[in-house]
Backbone:
């Protein structure tokens, strides 16, 4: 276990081994996302209440799920980089933060587009939307700190501490927003509490979720490999690669 | 005793220094020499324990915590010299009678205005307040980064006397200075040259 | 204790910072009736929320100053190197921030409340919620100050980093005051305060070590 951890923690080993994953992830994300889009947008039935607008769900829900889990992944990487001082974990934090922020923004944008036909306005202070907005601010904080503090290792560690504290606070933020919401308006209609979905709807939804994850890991891996080469440009293995 | 073994520091995409080796025995002084930007301050921070992104080893053998005096020397403008000194000693858990504090300040030729906030003092005088700490500490290793700058000739003389007394009592001194200090002309030197 | 005395002495000799954040709060509260309406019936329900938001902003805006001089003159380095537990010093710094920033606002709350035509019982609950809530603000502000100290534009960066963390405090504090002291929110706010006091100084101490190595 420790050996495995050590091997994959080495930028050189990681770079050479992870190359094989790229085509797999690329193929998976294109295929699954393609099928999911066709199935969800063209074949799946329209909702009897919401009509065609329900199809936004096939983008919104995967984006919202991915937004939360990408923050968790970023914070776990941050914790690893703080405890074991793994350079690769720090690079992982740095490269996943912009992707996570974009996905969170996508979840917000699609959520507000979905809100228009459902609530009649683009923005409602719904508990879920509000906590997603705060999640976006958390991502923005990590990115801003990273940018302001430059490329040094101490900058990475400061951003990592912030990410970890953010993860620990996320449940507190989420619960407090929920209390706030239920106090102000008893939940009448939320995006998630809905009657059981037929397979013709959750099938494509599940496919989109898997596809989003595949795409996310692909984007992360590409960025991470790029970042590793940039950081290690003075080491022998990168110099050798440049020569070849 | 302080020993540095193959110390390398990589900062912002370049080696600040590479494979440094040095050994300072009790009663010895070591001068760190190098141009601006050659990593003197970083080396001091590493020795003090403020900066830990380096490779190699730093060994402080049974000497306790070193006393670090950087070119930012921790004198608060709102506090009087006595209060500043008290705070810095308190941080290292040293309790001294006020008489000793005034004596230490007097050694560095600060006799009046001890109950005025340090904002009224000149840069050199503030430095003397910080240096007065040397008279009261029990630390065996002194790390003085640019301690001689901003001082006038009498101030430098007092400081080198204090340092020599420290060496004579078996202490260790590591310092950097752009000016030559005649009293320490024979001290061992460690040259830093930034590698590009 | 000596450390706290040092902080208080520094505060007393340069009260400009504390006065500034107080003036900021009074000024902003004075702007709301001008921008919304002078009608007491419409202003009164907004009072608790407005004063809480202004307190939060005043704390955030003053936070970077509380560490700037210690960083610039090297005191922070000496604190990290000292034999004292670093978390205790971070706690002391948070207390000093609270005394300089939140305490004056807390004492001014009756006047601010009167400016917004709040009834007396509301003002009492507002002050109670600030007593429990504002220390949490100070603890987080000190964390933010430590994260950004020594960086360019730290005063602009700090609110972006820290504001999201203050959301639960804001929600629980305002809810507790508007519901007239409903026990649930009070307990939750107290629990949050305990949790913050126990954990945040340690996190700030970790960050302090990073800050001095910049």
Residues:
């Amino acid at each position: 276990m420790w050996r495995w951890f050590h091997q994959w923690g080495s930028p050189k080993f990681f770079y050479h081994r992870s190359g094989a994953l790229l085509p797999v992830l690329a193929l998976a994300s294109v295929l699954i996302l393609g099928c999911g889009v066709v199935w969800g947008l063209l074949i799946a039935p329209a909702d009897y209440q919401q009509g065609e607008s329900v199809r936004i769900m096939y983008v919104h829900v995967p984006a919202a799920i991915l937004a939360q889990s990408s923050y968790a992944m970023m914070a776990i990487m941050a914790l690893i980089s703080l405890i074991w001082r793994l350079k690769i974990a720090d690079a992982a934090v740095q490269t996943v933060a912009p992707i996570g922020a974009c996905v969170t923004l996508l979840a917000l944008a699609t959520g507000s587009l979905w809100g228009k036909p459902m609530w009649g306005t683009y923005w409602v202070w719904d508990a879920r939307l509000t906590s997603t907005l705060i999640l976006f601010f958390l991502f923005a904080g990590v990115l801003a700190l990273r940018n302001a503090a430059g490329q040094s290792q101490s900058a990475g560690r400061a951003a990592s501490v912030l990410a970890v504290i953010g993860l620990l606070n996320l449940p507190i933020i989420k619960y407090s927003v929920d209390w706030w919401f239920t106090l102000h308006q008893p939940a009448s209609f939320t995006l998630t509490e809905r009657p059981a979905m037929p397979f013709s709807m959750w099938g494509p939804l599940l496919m989109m979720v898997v596809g989003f994850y595949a795409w996310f890991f692909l984007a992360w891996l590409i960025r991470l490999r790029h970042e590793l080469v940039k950081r290690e440009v003075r080491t022998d293995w990168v110099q050798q690669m440049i020569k070849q | 005793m302080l020993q540095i073994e193959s110390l390398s520091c990589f900062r912002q995409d370049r080696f600040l220094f590479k494979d440094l080796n040095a050994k300072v025995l009790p009663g010895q002084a070591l001068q760190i020499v190098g141009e601006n930007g050659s990593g003197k301050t970083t080396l001091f921070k590493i020795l003090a324990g403020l900066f830990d992104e380096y490779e190699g080893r730093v060994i402080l053998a049974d000497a306790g915590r070193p006393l670090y005096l950087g070119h930012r020397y921790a004198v608060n403008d709102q506090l009087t010299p006595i209060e500043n000194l008290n705070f810095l000693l308190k941080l290292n858990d040293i309790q001294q009678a006020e008489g000793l504090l005034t004596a230490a300040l007097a050694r560095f030729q600060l006799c009046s205005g001890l109950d005025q906030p340090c904002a009224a003092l000149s840069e050199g005088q503030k430095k003397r307040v910080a240096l007065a700490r040397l008279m009261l500490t029990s630390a065996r290793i002194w790390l003085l980064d640019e301690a001689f700058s901003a001082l006038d000739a009498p101030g430098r003389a007092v400081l080198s006397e204090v340092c020599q007394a420290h060496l004579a009592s078996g202490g260790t001194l590591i310092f950097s200075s752009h000016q030559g200090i005649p009293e320490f002309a024979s001290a061992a030197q460690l040259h830093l040259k930034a590698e590009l | 204790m000596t450390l706290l005395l040092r902080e208080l002495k520094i505060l007393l000799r340069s009260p400009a910072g504390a006065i500034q954040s107080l003036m900021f709060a009074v000024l902003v509260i004075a702007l709301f009736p001008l921008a919304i309406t002078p009608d007491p019936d419409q202003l009164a329900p907004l009072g608790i929320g407005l004063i809480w938001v202004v307190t939060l902003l005043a704390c955030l805006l003053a936070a970077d100053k509380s560490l700037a001089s210690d960083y610039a003159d090297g005191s922070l380095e000496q604190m990290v190197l000292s034999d004292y537990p670093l978390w205790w010093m971070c706690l002391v710094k948070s207390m000093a921030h609270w005394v300089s920033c939140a305490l004056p606002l807390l004492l001014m709350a009756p006047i601010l409340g009167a400016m917004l035509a709040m009834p007396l019982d509301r003002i009492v609950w507002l002050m109670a919620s600030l007593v429990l809530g504002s220390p949490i603000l100070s603890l987080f502000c000190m964390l933010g100050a430590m994260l950004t100290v020594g960086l360019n534009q730290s005063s602009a960066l700090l609110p972006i980093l820290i504001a999201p963390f203050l959301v639960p405090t804001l929600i629980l504090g305002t809810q507790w005051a508007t519901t007239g002291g409903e026990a649930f929110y009070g307990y939750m706010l107290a629990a949050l305060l305990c949790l913050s006091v126990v954990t945040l100084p340690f996190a700030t101490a970790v960050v302090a070590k990073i800050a001095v190595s910049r």
